[in-house]
């Protein structure tokens, strides 16, 4: 995987949607697909994950913070999140989240606090290529896609073949993105059809 020819981390997005773009309902996800949860875990474990406060709250308390990942939560009220500076951080902007994620990705285990120094997002070029995953919701993915310095360049989309009603939708991916199949249509153990595609730009 390349990162614009530098050692800046690759910033990826990952979500699961219905064929017409539904990703959420009533603060949760309108299906339970263990195969996709495994894919999500395999993809993101070992890397910082960035999320909005409602996505953080969508995880049952016993499943958060997501294990094996630095959990970075964006909220206008960071004091409302039980941040410990080890597994959970709370910051008040996407930019602060990305700066922190870049630092954590480059020095896993070495950063204990939020990076509020206002410095550049792109790390020194001698650091190894790393990954940062933006895990939702839609406003956070949009901000990530539009980030001037280190935008999203990769999105993994699981399409779950269910006709569900919802109140939250995935952002549209325009013609600047190229799709590659990761897994063609298959059936989960419980019979739900799903596929996984990667979009890059
Ligand atoms: N299917 C999937 O793959 C998937 C993935 C993720 C989420 N979801 C679903 O999507 C829904 C949650 O998405 P959502 O769009 O409602 O919420 P969200 O993006 O997770 O969280 C929104 C909140 O994040 C904070 N926030 C976001 N950007 C900010 C910024 N730039 N500055 C300060 N604070 C910022 C604000 O928190 P405060 O209000 O605290 O200020 C805002 O209210 C749930 O239903 C969840 O299950 C589905």
UniProtKB/TrEMBL annotation:
Belongs to the dihydrofolate reductase family. InterPro entries: DHFR, DHFR-like_dom_sf, DHFR_CS, DHFR_dom. GO terms for biological process: dihydrofolate metabolic process; folic acid metabolic process; one-carbon metabolic process; tetrahydrofolate biosynthetic process. Residues 10-201 form the DHFR domain. CDD domains: DHFR. It comes from the Bacteria. It holds the Pfam family DHFR_1. GO terms for molecular function: dihydrofolate reductase activity; NADP binding. Transmembrane segments: none annotated. GO terms for cellular component: cytosol. PROSITE patterns: DHFR_1, DHFR_2. Pathway: Cofactor biosynthesis; tetrahydrofolate biosynthesis; 5,6,7,8-tetrahydrofolate from 7,8-dihydrofolate: step 1/1. Gene3D superfamilies: Dihydrofolate Reductase, subunit A. Its EC number is 1.5.1.3. This is dihydrofolate reductase.
């Amino acid at each position: 995987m390349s990162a614009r020819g530098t050692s800046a981390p690759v910033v990826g997005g990952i979500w699961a949607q219905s064929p017409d773009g539904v990703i959420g309902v009533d603060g949760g996800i309108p299906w339970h697909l263990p195969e996709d949860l495994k894919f999500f875990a395999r993809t993101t474990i070992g890397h910082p994950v960035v999320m909005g406060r409602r996505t953080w709250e969508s995880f049952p308390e016993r499943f958060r913070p997501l294990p094996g990942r630095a959990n970075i939560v964006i909220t206008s009220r960071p004091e409302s999140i039980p941040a410990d500076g080890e597994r959970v951080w709370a910051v008040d902007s996407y930019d602060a989240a990305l700066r922190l994620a870049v630092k954590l990705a480059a020095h896993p285990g070495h950063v204990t606090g939020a990076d509020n120094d206002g410095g550049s997002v792109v790390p020194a070029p001698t650091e190894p290529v790393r990954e940062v995953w933006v895990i939702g919701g839609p406003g956070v993915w949009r901000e990530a896609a539009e980030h001037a310095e280190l935008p999203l360049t990769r999105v993994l989309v699981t399409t779950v073949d269910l006709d569900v009603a919802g109140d939250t939708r995935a952002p549209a991916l325009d013609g600047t993105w190229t799709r590659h199949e990761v897994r063609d249509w298959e059936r989960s153990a419980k019979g739900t059809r799903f596929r996984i595609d990667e979009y890059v730009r």
